[in-house]
Design the sequence.
């Protein structure tokens, strides 16, 4: 890909870059989004009906089982080139803040530090009654490709059901993470919007905020999004491929990406 010279100059001169990532980045590592067709025993379920507190209260075994199936898929996946190059940026640019809508840990496993998870994490469950954190095992008894209903654990303090540590539809984003994300956008020079459909609010407002503040917004996505108009540069394609080429164009290949 022939990158715009002005875009490369923005990246070279940047003192603070925000990498704002969405489901498209993880999808390239083989992790299905909740909008994708399900497999195995889950194929007859609408995933959109499994991502609400109401669904968990109505059938906790079904919702917990589905999230454990997703967690197993995450644990068997590997970070792709986009994850790795974003992590590498933290060693060659004065400041890089990773703000993600994804609930997996692929950014961390690629080497990124202090990742801001706007929508929570599959790996940080908590009690649905008292909010106490619950430590999950490294493995689950589900078949990764099949999935099944699984009874959620009970809280060791109050006996309440443990729920996935994610933000469901109808729930507010965590205050601290939202504050960190907005502060980073206000402070940055460049915002990279990567693999996000730009449709889930309020997270989708971050590139708009960056544009309104005069920041350089660079979008990486294989399809048009609502942020095409606020992005100064639109790179059309898969994130892993584009970041691989961007790494070469920016001469980041020799950087030390060790956290």
Sequence:
């Amino acid at each position: 890909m022939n990158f715009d010279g002005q875009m490369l100059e923005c990246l070279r001169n940047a003192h603070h870059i925000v990498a704002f990532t969405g489901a498209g980045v993880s999808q390239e590592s083989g992790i299905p989004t909740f909008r994708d067709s399900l497999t195995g025993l889950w194929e007859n379920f609408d995933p959109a009906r499994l991502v609400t507190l109401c669904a968990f209260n109505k059938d906790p075994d079904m919702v917990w089982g589905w999230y454990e199936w997703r967690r197993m898929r995450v644990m068997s996946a590997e970070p792709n080139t986009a994850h790795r190059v974003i992590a590498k940026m933290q060693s060659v640019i004065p400041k890089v803040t990773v703000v993600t809508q994804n609930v997996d840990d692929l950014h961390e496993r690629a080497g990124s530090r202090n990742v801001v998870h706007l929508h929570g994490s599959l790996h940080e469950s908590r009690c649905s009654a008292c909010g106490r954190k619950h430590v999950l095992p490294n493995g689950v008894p589900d078949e990764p490709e099949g999935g099944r209903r699984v009874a959620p654990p009970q809280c060791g303090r109050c006996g309440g059901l443990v729920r996935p540590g994610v933000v469901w539809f109808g729930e507010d984003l965590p205050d601290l993470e939202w504050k960190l994300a907005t502060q980073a956008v206000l402070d940055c020079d460049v915002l990279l919007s990567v693999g996000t459909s730009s449709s889930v609010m309020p997270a989708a407002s971050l590139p708009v905020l960056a544009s309104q503040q005069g920041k350089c917004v660079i979008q990486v996505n294989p399809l048009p999004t609502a942020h095409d108009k606020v992005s100064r540069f639109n790179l059309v394609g898969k994130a892993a491929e584009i970041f691989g080429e961007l790494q070469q164009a920016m001469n980041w290949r020799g950087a030390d990406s060790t956290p």
Notes: The beta strands are 16-21, 95-100, 116-117, 125-127, 133-134, 162-163, 190-194, 216-221, 233-236. DSSP finds nine helices and nine strands in the chain. Residues 60-75 form the longest helix (16 residues). The CA atoms of residues 15 and 93 lie 6 Å apart.
